[in-house]
Amino acid sequence: xxxxAIERLIQTLARLPGFGPRSARRAALALxxxxxxxxxxxxxxxxxxxxxxRFCSVCGNVDTDDPCVLCTDSRRDSSVLCVVREVAxxxxxxxxxxxxxxxxxxxxxxxxxxxxxxDDLRLESLIxxxxxxxxxxxxxxxxxxxxxxxxxxxxxERLKETRVHISALAHGVPVGGELDYLxxxxxxxxxxxxxxxxxxxx
Amino acid sequence: xxxxxxxxxxxxxxxGERSAIVSLLTHAHGRHAGLVRGAARMxxxxxxxxxxxxxxxxxxxxxxxxxxxxxxxxxxxxLLRDGARLACLAAACAMAETAVPERAPHPVVFATLESLIxxxxxxxxxxxxxxxxxEMTLLAALGYGLDLTERETALRxxxxxxxxxxxxxxxxxxxxxxxxxxxxxxxxxxxxxxxxAPAGIAATDIAAALRLTGHFLERHALLPAARVRxxxxxxxxxxxxxxxxxxx
Lengths: 202, 248
Fold this sequence. Notes:
heterodimer; A: Dna Topoisomerase Vi A Subunit, Chain: A, domain 2; about 45% helix; B: alpha+beta; CATH 2.40.50.140; de novo design (two linked rop proteins); 2 domains; 8 strands; about 35% helix; elongated
């Protein structure tokens, strides 16, 4: 149906998250039809990323500079370090705009079966940062899963000697969530993490 | 083909972007895997240790088939804030996933794992000895249980079983142990004595028990990382402290 070059493009696109063979075919066709508006800028962007983007040696984020823009931003609070599993989690927190400290990307979580152990994560560099970079608080922003929390406990254990304050994200009712639709586990953790209700007048 | 059974979630591996291959330990159908469509949005259900009502469907019995599951008890959520108990839950589920053969009913393993998880959730102080005993049950259910035939002799002669041969799995009495020197594995009494009070068992005994069961489990299945980490907790735990006063 299409030449080998186009087929190769379709097959490559189909390997991307969110794409299947049909959507890859549509995307390829759109790229070819809008060569100057889509294809050329995309080629340029991909070349830039392939040549310039690297992992930040400090936090593990991806950026064109090393250290990354988040690590060199002097307006950020260096005393608070947020530990996340992957770069996608860092981006999610940045999107919220709620956190103004520094990050540390672990590169995964401890796995029960797959042999991902502490040596496979960026744990040593986290300990060094916590000890030497004037960090007062480490926020463990890992998933509310068995693997995520197993990793959080392992990190907390390792950080015990550094004497930094260790906190973790709350687990509970999401904004916009109705109790009737929540699963039992979320309701349970929400009840366990209940806190005094502050009146607006207080 | 179709069946419905109660089950404990062991693992959930992502399959594509939205689905997962979920492995369950069921009451009547043993360890059974199946595809769950849309599992990415059901992360809270497919946490290891959770109790579910599972419905399996497949055109042929040999096929992977698909599961649809309803959450019965979110036991994992109870343990997320307790590092030691969470490590035990992860180890138990990973051990069952690794050691229990697929699609062979093991109602005893199911019942004892369920009981262990219930103990963890209810904050039972003797969870660590209970875990070691569960591994003994697992070994026995898989046909690799320790040989305790010398037990009667030991009782008659006012002796006690204190060691196990790492080769044969046969327990030997304390007075006979000198023949084999240091090659024998220590057998903590609580592993074979049901009347033993679990609350007073030292972390060193737990560590010895896990070394013993781990030795025999490793002969038949790879010890999963979570199980290795749990044993390491007790290896590094402070000596001679009872596990109910200081869990590692």
